[in-house]
Amino acid sequence: MAGIVIVGAGHAGVKVAASLRTMDPDAPITLLSAESQIPYHRPPLSKKSVFDAALPMELLQANGYYEKANIDLRLNTTVTSINPDVSSVTLADGQQLNYQQLVIATGTKVRRLPVPGGERAMSVYTYADIQTLGPRLQSANHIAVIGGGFIGCEIAAGALKIGKQVSLLITGPRALRKSVAPILGETVTKLHRQQGMDIRTGCQVLAITEQGVQTNQGFVQADLIISGIGAQANMQLAQAADLTTDHGILVDEFGRTSLSHIYAVGDVAEFPYGGDLLRLESIQNATDQGANVAANIIAERHHQAPKAYTPTPWFWSDQGDLKLQMAGLGNLDAEHKVLPGNTPNNLTVVHLSKGRMMAVDTLNMPANHLAARKLLEMKKPITWAMIEACDFDLKKLFKQLR
Amino acid sequence: MTQVTFTQTDGTQITVEANNNEHLMKLALENGVEGITGACGGSCMCATCHVSVDHVSGNLAGPGEMEEEILDMEIDNPLATSRLCCQIFVANDLNAIKVTVQEG
Ligand SMILES: Cc1cc2nc3c(=O)[nH]c(=O)nc-3n(C[C@H](O)[C@H](O)[C@H](O)COP(=O)(O)OP(=O)(O)OC[C@H]3O[C@@H](n4cnc5c(N)ncnc54)[C@H](O)[C@@H]3O)c2cc1C
Ligand code: FES
């Protein structure tokens, strides 16, 4: 009997499956994964697993869960096409699987360095990647990391912490330029440099050789080169099936694609958010959107009205001993105000747009992050004056408004 | 080796032998303990690994700042013994620990 088929068993696909099972004990659920590992958490890969000789893996669901929950998890199973006319997907071995509802949760594809020798740079996306990279990292002396985003910074900081010589090559003026308030990016750059990281800003990679990286600022010697220059939505399947796409697979506020009975979730989905379209690469989004789509599939199966997805985005990044936490959707064009009480290693920055708090970035100030997340989740207007009136204590403000 | 015992919500117990540096959330998932989700992968960002500590033989380090904040803000009625088990690490001087799974 046809049931719900989910393509991709990352954070989003697994959340859809598990939420479906909680809401409906009987619906047939098939979860297809191109990977050979039982589904696992990605964030630890670049924060700790790759630096630990034991290469620890954190499971997304407990051992035995899929059998117990009667979820048909098939590893090493790649979907090669979606056939909406006959409501089926084709697998790499030629088998056809019919669906009543299909969920596309195919995540992203790592961007490759478009320079000569670019294929020499390793990247971190799957557990298989760190199985190759981990041992090479242990034996390397000088590591060059290309890309100053979260994953690049995490790998560079972790490698430095286990005693490697590390060069971080960044095209922009500071680390995390696109993702956090400028003052936080500058602070993180400064703190990593103080630990001995060789950070080169305004650095264009021209070529990669066996000896290292050729840049516009000269040659950087390295015996291991890792790139973290971002990712693109993994949406060829959807494009080939004529689903509407943009930077991701376009979905409405209920997670529905342009074709009926087909949903998309997680990193691959682009959804309406505050009058705009947004594609997020985060655990928060994969998990919350996954739960939402599961509920909407159950609603579809019972001819009930779907519920809109209205997230409060949040994200974190552990870089050596630095803990960054972002609540809300930050904006480089916003007004950035630093909360008093910061020290060289602690910082809280509030993003204000039209006088209203849109996001809060913190460095080593977990209490402020959590309070900010709670405040934003209330979806009430928060102004700087309100924060000031609470002696800049976000937790106090939350307890007052709750 | 440290002996770790999880009491599940239905009262049944699962006991495992654990190695140093492993955290209890990882152990719970690997051994199929019911009621521990570990949504954030042990990054101390959710609260889906809430337990109460019933018994400790040996030394157990206390909660950090983030853990205390999460317990305070995310959990309706934290117990005096409430912990996030992704922040409880097995160590040489921890001989045995018993925890009960609590609502996340
Ligand atoms: C190293 C690293 C660190 C990260 N750190 C953080 C962090 O600290 N905090 C945070 O919020 N986010 C972090 N992220 C981002 C987060 O992991 C992603 O947002 C999340 O994994 C998205 O989940 P997803 O299910 O949409 O996609 P994915 O987890 O990417 O899963 C997609 C799955 O689909 C499979 N697939 C693709 N095509 C097919 C096909 N045709 N057939 C079958 N299977 C297919 C893929 O093999 C993959 O397993 C990190 C990501 C990485 C790579
Ligand atoms: S697993 Fe999220 S706080 Fe422990």
Keyword list:
heterodimer, A: 402 residues, alpha/beta, FAD/NAD(P)-binding domain, Enolase-like, domain 1, 3 domains, 11 helices, 24 strands, B: 104 residues, alpha+beta, Ubiquitin-like (UB roll), five-stranded mixed beta sheet, 16% helix, globular, binds FE2/S2 (inorganic) cluster
Describe this structure as you would to a colleague:
- The complex is a heterodimer of chains A (402) and B (104).
- Helices cover 27% and strands 28% of the residues of chain A.
- In chain A, strands 1, 2, 3, 4, 5, 6 and 17 form a seven-stranded mixed β-sheet that branches. In chain A, strands 20-21-24-23-22 form a five-stranded antiparallel β-sheet, sandwiched between helices.
- Chain A has helices at residues 11-23, 43-47, 65-68, 127-139, 150-161, 182-194, 236-240, 283-301, 366-377, 384-389, 394-401, and strands spanning 3-7, 29-32, 71-74, 79-83, 88-91, 96-104, 108-110, 142-146, 165-169, 198-200, 205-208, 212-215, 218-221, 224-227, 231-233, 249-250, 262-264, 269-273, 276-278, 314-319, 322-328, 335-338, 347-353, 356-363.
- Chain A is of the alpha/beta class.
- Chain A has three domains: 4-109 and 232-301, FAD/NAD(P)-binding domain (3-Layer(bba) Sandwich), CATH 3.50.50; 112-227, FAD/NAD(P)-binding domain, CATH 3.50.50.60; 321-401, Enolase-like, domain 1.
- Chain B has a single domain, classed as Ubiquitin-like (UB roll), CATH 3.10.20.30.
- Chain B is α+β, with helices and mostly antiparallel strands.
- The A-B interface holds A 41, 43-44, 56, 58-59, 61-65, 68, 283, 287, 314, 316, 318, 323, 325, 366-367, 370-371, 374, 395, 398 and B 26, 28-34, 36, 38-45, 65-66, 69-70, 73-74.
- The complex binds flavin-adenine dinucleotide and FE2/S2 (inorganic) cluster.
- Flavin-adenine dinucleotide binds next to helix 1, helix 2, helix 8 and strand 20 of chain A.
